[in-house]
Structure formats: structure tokens, C-alpha cells
Amino acid sequence: MKNFLLLIIALILVFSPFEMKSQEIKQKNETQEKAASGGEMTFTIRTVTSGGNFSPRHVLAIWVEDSDGFIKTRKAMANQRKQYLYTWKAASNYNVVDAITGSTLTSHQTHTVSWDFVDLDGNIVPDGEYTVWVEFTEQHAQGPIYTLTFEKGPNPISLTPADETYYKDIEFEFTPLVADFTMDATAICQWESVTFTDESVNATSWEWAFGDGAEPATATGAGPHTVSYTTPGAKTISLTINGSLTETKENAIVVNPSPESDFQYSGSDFTIDFINLSQNATSYLWDFGDGNTSTEENPQHVYTGAGTFMVSLTAQYEDCTDEQTQEINLPIVGIRDNDNLSFTISPNPSEGKFFVTFNPDLNQDASLTIFNSQGKEVQTIGISNNPNVMIDLSNQVKGLYFVSLKDGKTTYSSKVLIK
Q1: Which of helix, strand or coil describes residue 403?
Q2: Looking only at Cα atoms, what is the longest distance across the chain?
Q3: Between residues 211 and 330, which one has the greater pLDDT?
Q4: Taking 70 as the threshold, does the pLDDT of residue 94 lie above it?
Q5: Does 134 lie in the same domain as 83?
Q6: What is the pLDDT of residues 320-374, one digit of tens each?
Q7: What is the arrangement of strands in the sheet containing 399-407, beginning at the earlier edge strand?
Q8: Which of 127, 196, 313, 413 has CB atoms 3.0–4.6 Å from 335's, for a disulfide?
Q9: Assign residue 159 a region: left if phi > 0, alpha if psi is -120 to 50, beta otherwise?
Q10: In Å, how far are 227, 246, 256, 258, 336 from 237, measured between CA atoms?
């Protein structure tokens, strides 16, 4: 039993560090999902012998770390005796991917390295604090260490640190690479245009993607680029510069659906009923052409005299509007309403199908005729003692239709709106 417990404890001690390391790597990767900037770093340094210490024959490593540890080696001149670069060895485990490499040096010299801020996984590292490390040594001896810490971000950096005992002529340059853009509107109407302007830093190439329904959908070059949208909704825009750094703005623009204004009218003499057939609208403004207006969806208006009137309907959704104008000549001869309820229509308005229910006293030879708003006959149906008739106008255009019931010598009429 004692041996079993010891085995369990040993397994916990062995595997726990791996679990912790896995969590650390996951957390580090999560912080690297997006970089606010890329760029180019150039670092120059000269090593020297001082006071007879550290002979010209030596090994050297230059690498970069962040607060979590090793990022990338930039130079390793140590094919032999590299094990004596104790600090670099502990940090990198001899990783020299994408680094300048070579054999043991026979003289002190000036070293220049660069870094494009891409890590070992090929990702641009996030903005933040980084440190350049330099280590050199001769055989069997721990050598001097030099470090330079800088802040990676959208601002350029130029440093000339003071000389040290074993390190001279130190220079550091950071040129940021920033992908960014602006637009002259964040909410537009369908079919309207918006202009995108590049605000990137040190970009040499541009690849734009303007989102769903954009015309054009993509573009190259700095711009500005003017784009319109055929579909409504929130749009995600991205800009990739220099083939590597991408700035993506989700829901950067909201495209509101453009309303379509449309209406019909009917009536007699000077009393007119207006039927609103607009699409994608939430508010309306009627101008009846006689100085009167209305914000009702389907208003009735009584004119005070004869004449020709220009009636306009403005349909609106958010800041998007559309207007239609029609000419009305008054007085007009209307269709007599079905005042005595010889038949009823339900539902009204309808989406295409509706029922006509008749008075049981109607003549068996009565017939029902449907006309469109232009007076063209659409359908004729015999009644034949059927108290309920289903009418299907689904294949007809939306609008106002007139239902005419002829019972012997008497004709009754009513209206139905197909929406």
C-alpha cells in the first residue's frame, strides 16, 4: 500500500509540470491572436576584449525574449563550444530557426541582426515589452551578458546606448508597421457608397476585403476606395498590408435596407383612400398636394375642390428614404362601396389568398369578377349557391384590387389589398 501511494505521488510530480507548461503555452498563444503592429528591428553591437579577458576566439549568441521567455534566436556563432553559452542555452535549447549561424569566431567584430517580429509559429507577436540579449564567451568561462529592453508599438524607436566594458557602438532601430484604415461613414443606406482611407504606417502593399454585398468586393492599392453595398446588414472589413499584417474591423459599417415607396388610391368625388404599398419602411410622410400632410400609413383625405394634385409619399427607414409622386385629377368617379354587405372579404389586407362570403339571399346566377387597379379583369367566378369562395391572387402583383359582385341587374363592389 505504501509503495502504491509513493507511485501516485511520483506520477503527480512528473505530470503536473507538463500540465502547467501546457496552460502557459495556451495563455501565451491567446495573447498573440492579434498584433496591433508589425515592423522591423535592427540591432548592432561590437564585442571587445578588455583587460586581457575573453580572448578574440569566442562563441556568441543574440536572441530575443519577452516576459514569458524565449522568442527567437537572431544569431548564433557557435558550431563548437556552444554549450558554454549558458544563458542562451537555457533560454533557447539551441533553437536557431531563421537565425544567422556560423562557426566559432576568431576575432571580435561588429554584429548586426534584424527581426520582423514573427515568432517561431509564423505569427506576428503582439505589442509590448521585448528584450534583446547578447552573450559571448571563451572556452569554459561564463561570458558577459548585454540586454536592451524596448516597447514594441505604433511608434518608431531609435537608440544609441552608452558603451560598456565588453560591448561598444550599440545601435537600435525599430520601424513600426501598422495596418489601419478609416471610413467616412459607419451607417449608410443600401446602394449608397462609403469611402475607405488607408491610415497604415510603412505599408508597401495593400489588400482590402470590404465584406458581404460590397461592390467592389476587394481592392488593392492604398486608395481611397469608394464602395457601395447591395445587401443590408453589418459589414466586416479587413486590410492586409505587406502581405503579413491584417487589421479586421467587425461590424465596421451597418448598411440599412433602402425603403421602396409605392402607393395606390381609390375613391369618389373628393374623398380619396390612399393605399400604402411601400417596402422596408417604418415611417411615412404623405403630401397631398393641397398643403396638407399626414404620417398615417394608409390615410383618407378629403379635398375641398376640383383640380390636379401632385401627391407624394416619402417612405423612411432609419436615415434612408425613398419618394414616389403621382398625379390625381379630381373629382374622380369611384366604385360604389358594398354598403349593404352583400358579401364580405377576409382577410383584408391579404397576402394573396382570401375568402369571399356571400349573403344567402343572392341569386344562383350571381358572378364574382376581380379587377386590378387599372380596370383589367383578372378573374371571374360563378357563385352557384356557394356561400364561401376562396380567391387566389398569389400570382398577381401586389396592390389594390376591386371585387365586383353582379346579382341580376345589381352590382356590388368592394376592395381588397394584396400585400
Answers
A1: strand
A2: 129
A3: 211
A4: yes
A5: yes
A6: 999 999 998 888 654 444 444 578 888 988 889 998 887 776 666 677 888 887 6
A7: 377-382, 367-371, 399-407, 410-418
A8: 413
A9: beta
A10: 11, 10, 17, 21, 58
What are the DSSP calls for 226-276, one per residue?
EEEESS-EEEEEEEEETTTEEEEEEEEEEEEPPPB--EEEEEEBTEEEEEE
Q: What is the pLDDT of residue 140?
A: 67
Are the beta carbons of 263 and 278 closer than 8 angstroms?
A: yes
In which domain, by residue range, is 412 found? Answer: 343-418
Residue type, 5: L
Residue 343's Cβ-count burial label (10 Å; 0-12, 13-18, 19+) is buried
Q: Per the domain annotation, does 8 fall within a domain?
A: no
Q: Which helix (H) or strand (E) holds 151?
A: strand 145-152
Cell 394634385 sits on residue: 309
In a shared domain, residues 158 and 185: no
The count of residues in the chain is 419
Alpha carbon separation from 1 to 5, 9, 15, 200 (Å, rounded)? 6, 13, 22, 67
CATH of the domain at 96: 2.60.40
279: cell is 417596402
- Report how far residue 239's alpha carbon sits from residue 243's, in angstroms, rounded to the nearest whole number: 10
Query: Same domain, yes or no, for 200 and 291?
Result: no
Give the per-residue pLDDT at 408: 65
- Find the angle CA(215)-CA(219)-CA(222) to the nearest 5 degrees: 130
Q: Identify whether residues 126 and 226 lie together within a single domain.
A: no
Q: Which helix or strand (DSSP H or E) is residue 325 part of?
A: strand 320-330
Among residues 96, 104, 106, 54, which one has the least CA distance to residue 75?
96
**How many Cα atoms occupy the beta-carbon half-sphere of 224 within 13 Å?**
10
Give the three-class secondary structure for 8: helix
Angle at 151 between CA 44 and CA 249, to 5 degrees: 125
